[in-house]
Design brief:
- This protein has five helices and four strands; from the N terminus they run H-E-H-E-H-E-H-E-H.
- A four-stranded parallel beta sheet has the order 2-1-3-4, sandwiched between helices.
- The longest helix has 15 residues.
Amino acid sequence: MICWQPKQNEFMSDPLKILFICSQNRWRSLTAEKMYAGFSGYTVRSAGTEANARIRVNEGHIGWADLIFVMEKNHKERLQDKFAEALRGKKVICLHIGDDYQFMNSNLQEVLKEKLKPHIAVP
């Protein structure tokens, strides 16, 4: 398990840039983005790995992010296959959350909070 360890005073000067990734960027990653939007100390974005994703992940997203959360192992593999160079030195953490929820589902929000808790402060 990789835990984010901020540098001293990091949150006071620069917010942690978090990227949430799922397949379609319609339910899981978008819910996570909405949950963390405006949360002090974080700037968040979300994207998807599929061609028909709402917002498709690109190299710019990877370069922007300080910390990347993927919902499934195959998302991490797809990122590695397509953006290996851009991912060097990046922390990519798999949350192991299946595609079983719809956007802003209360159960999904609880699962996200529980899975993110070991890595970042939960709103």
